Each structure stands twice: as C-alpha cells, then as structure tokens.
Amino acid sequence: MIDQLIKKIKEMDNATVVGLDPRLNFIPSFIKDASYAKYGKTLQGAANAFYEFNKEIIDNIYDLVPAVKPQIAMYEQYGIHGLNAYLQTINYAKEKGLIVIGDIKRSDIASTALAYSNGHIGRVKIEDELIEVYKEDFITLNPYLGYDSIEPYIGNCNAYDKGLFVLVKTSNPNSGEIQDLEVDGEKIYEKVGKLVANWGEKAMGELGYSRVGAVVGATYPKQSKDLRKIMPKTFFLVPGYGAQGATAEDLSGCFSKDGLGAIVNSSRGIIAAYTKEDYSKMFKAEEFGKAARQAVINMRDDLNRVR
Amino acid sequence: MIDQLIKKIKEMDNATVVGLDPRLNFIPSFIKDASYAKYGKTLQGAANAFYEFNKEIIDNIYDLVPAVKPQIAMYEQYGIHGLNAYLQTINYAKEKGLIVIGDIKRSDIASTALAYSNGHIGRVKIEDELIEVYKEDFITLNPYLGYDSIEPYIGNCNAYDKGLFVLVKTSNPNSGEIQDLEVDGEKIYEKVGKLVANWGEKAMGELGYSRVGAVVGATYPKQSKDLRKIMPKTFFLVPGYGAQGATAEDLSGCFSKDGLGAIVNSSRGIIAAYTKEDYSKMFKAEEFGKAARQAVINMRDDLNRVR
Description:
Two copies of one chain form a homodimer. Chain A is α/β, with parallel strands linked by helices and 307 residues long. Chain A has helices at residues 2-12, 29-39, 43-61, 72-76, 79-95, 110-120, 151-160, 176-179, 188-200, 221-230, 248-251, 268-271, 277-280, 288-306; strands at 16-20, 67-70, 99-106, 124-126, 129-131, 138-141, 163-169, 182-183, 186-187, 212-216, 236-238, 262-266. In chain A, β8 (182-183) and β9 form a beta hairpin. In chain A, α3 packs across α14 and α9 packs parallel to α10 (221-230). The interface between A and B is large, with 71 and 71 residues.
C-alpha cells in the first residue's frame, strides 16, 4: 500500500491528505436539518449528518488527492451510530479509489494489539470464517509501549499489504513534554524515530519506503528536518498544516530530495473551507464541496512550491 | 468516582478488578453455538457470545469485586456489533453496581481528545441535547502527546466525577524500550509519573487520592515501588498479575501503607479460570461463572496477604 500511495502522489502530483474530521459546528444546516428530520437530534442524527457531509466532500476531491484520513474519535464519540458512519465513510472513499488512513492512534500490549490489528488492517477469525472489518489501508499507532505493542500490526502489514504511521513527534503544543526529553544527548523523538525506522526494516515496500511510516508534526520544522535525515526510508504523515498554524515552508524538511517521503494532512482547512473568509465570498454553504475542492487545489500548489 | 472506588474496595475488602477481555477460544461452546445459531458465524454472532459470556461472569462476581475493566479492543475488532456488546456490558455491569474502567488507552491532540472525552466520560452535545454515550466511570489514557492531550479529560472528570488511569509503566516485556530511557538520572516512567501526579492535583477526590490515576505494571516490582513513593496521591491500576506472570509479592509495593492506593487487574486468570487445570477439576464448562467466582476469592485472599 505504501507503493500505491507513492504512485498516486506522483500521478496526481499532490501530497495532500484530506482529514475527514467532521464537527457539527461546521456542517451546513441543510445537511444537519435533513438528518435530524429523519433521525432526530440523536447520535444517529449526528452520525448520519457526518456521512452525508463526507460523501459530498469525497465526491469533490477524490480525483485530486491520493488519500483521506478519517479521525475515528469524531465518530467513536457517537457510539455505534458514529462507528457506522466511520465504516460507511471508509467504504465510500475506497469505492472512489482513495487510500484510507484510519487515524486511530491505538496502543496496547501484544495480545490486545493483535485484536486491534486484525480488526483494522487484517482479518478477524470467527471459527472457520475470516472477516475483514474496518478495511483501512493505513492506521496510526502510539509507540509508548515499545516494540511488542507494534509487532502484531507488522504481520498484517506484510500479509495484506497495509501500512502504519507511528507517532514520533506530534504537532500539538505540549508534544515536547515527553517527546523532547533528552537521553544521552538525543531527544526522545529521535530515539523513537530510530526505533520506528528499525521496525520498518521488517516491512519494506518495493519503491524504497517502508510500510511502517511515522507521524511528524509540521509545527516543528527543525525536528522534522532532523527526523528526515535519521529515517530516510520512512514515509511521514505530517499533521499541523493550516488550522494548526504550520506553513508549507515549515514542513518542507519533511520531504526527501525526490519530493516524496511525506504526505501532509489538512482537515478543517479543507473540509470547513466554505466557512473561511476567502472562500465564503466565492462559495455558498450549499457549495461546501466545491470550496473544499478549491482548498485542495490551493494546498496542492502551495506544497508543490516546496517539495 | 475515585472516592466510591476506595469505599467499595474497603467494603468488599478486595482490591481485585476483573478484566472483561473475552476471546472466542475460551468462551464455552454452548454459549458460542447458541449465538451462532441465532446470528451465524458472523461479527454479530461473536459479539453476542461475548455479551452472554460477560453477563454470566458479572452475575457471579458483582458482589465480590469493586470494579470490572472491559478491554475495548476485544469488542472494537468486531465493528459495530462488537462495540454494541461493549456498551451492553458496561450497562449490565453498572446495573449490578460495579464500577466500570474502560480500558481504551486513547491518545490524541486537544480538540480530538475532547471528542473521546465527551463520548466516553462526559456528554456529547447534539444541538440542544446533551447525551451520555459510553458511560464508563474510569478510562485509561496514553500520555505520549503531553498535557494538552490529557487536559480535555480532566474537565469531564471534575464535572461528572469520573476518573482516569494514565499509562506510566506498562506491564509488557518491551515497555522499557521507551519508558526506561534515562533523562538526567531519571527514567522516563519516573518523569511521566511526576507529570501524572502533577496533573492529578487538578482533580483531587475527598479521600486523599486524585481522580487521575496511573497504570503501573505488576511485572516490574522495583519500578512500581519507586513510583509509589513519587506519586503518593495517585491511585494505581495494576495489570500483569496472573496470566502475565506477576505474583502478589511482586506488586506489594504498589499499595500504600493504608493497604489502599492500588487495584489489581486479572483477566484470563479469572474469566477463563475454568480452562485451567486447578479449576477444571472442580468446575464443568457450564460452571465457568462459578470458576471465575472461586478465582476472584483466591485472588482477593492472595492480594490481602500483601496489602
């Protein structure tokens, strides 16, 4: 799947990932009202509004971007209806040919990790039946528990050609509290970066990058540049562009010399573009999908300046 | 809720938590067959077998233990049916008066963490409706992203009297890979322990312990003893007893002088007791609930020797 991701980035000349993290406060009223009319102001009403919103976004961007990244928390908060919208969104995105990165950031010990792994990127076994459940192409993971919490995913990555992005240096303001602590002259995120690169050797793709990638925040330009050098075969998933404040220049160090090596996520900056001043002049709320499309084009061109 | 947990531990003279982590390979055939007859060898068939199994376990232990800890991964792997069994299990356990610790180990940046927090221990807001979704009393969290990834839970802890257990030193074999790295003469788990203790000051209960607890593995006796000293007001959730190899002596350092300060989890050791040599002589598969009850009594007495 890492090879397919690289091919699609080249084909579309675009390293943008659209984060599908809907929130009720920016879903247009006409979608919410229709959903509430059907299901009430309930978990199902909210979840269905998310799915309707996502479909329109996907319809408007699937031919421009290699991948989408639904954030499971947004769906999980609404219980089984929310999770259903998450699954529907994944199916719809895949039908449209998009690669799906499930932003789940799970972490647990080996036998439990295997349950997450089988459910999300492998197959669950129910007696003699093997069932594919979530069908994400990539998922994100948290490395705090060490290698035996990651290993159960690597088998499924190789068996089913799936991929991982393991948190190394996150984009949030307090990420340094643990990640920037210094051990023998080296920061924790560098230590973790080396571990992730090492784990990745067990799951190499054909095009020079591993199926085990890293999450590296755009909001920390120096750190991401250092990590790029430490982890030459590791693909980066880069959050923090746009709404979180990072510019294309800030994240330019995440790319390799070949202009590959990273995909950059934007969520609200794209899917809620129609609420922003620049776009709201051009697009009505009903045209939120078109606004998202324009935001993708603008982001693509902005990233292409620096990679 | 931390105060209620302490009261229940005293009342029952028991610091045992029963981990509700069912697996198809130890659920008795008569439960699985009945479920498959209704729903087929499907996700729903497996999930329903989990719920039926859990009900029988709960019926046999609710008067002996203060709390249960369902591991969400076991349920999440089966999609919406699995999640439904997780929610049903929580409801059933609470009806029986048990405190529920949702072992979710989530980690994400602030705005996303708030979605998890509202869904699991707070309320989600759908227009003018506030809805309680998962209803766990405590949840577990991963601290790798720093304080702004934990803060969104602390508000809900105080507003709704809920609690957290943040991973500090986990019980798995590779937990030292990151957690044991040394920074200025201090291990990462000690640094994290101090952070968690500090965060906990913002959410103190009435009985001397914080609503923000810590996960400290029983498999590392020296480390847990050190952490007990560093974090005197922090309640520990202690995994690793039994199936993972730790004895009561190993985890004795997790308790405070008052014999409180820790609850100890056992999952397979209790819920799959009927499959183990000692118990299988006394209990038939149909009596797996009674075997679990006996295993709880044995564990209670074993822990009470050392606390």
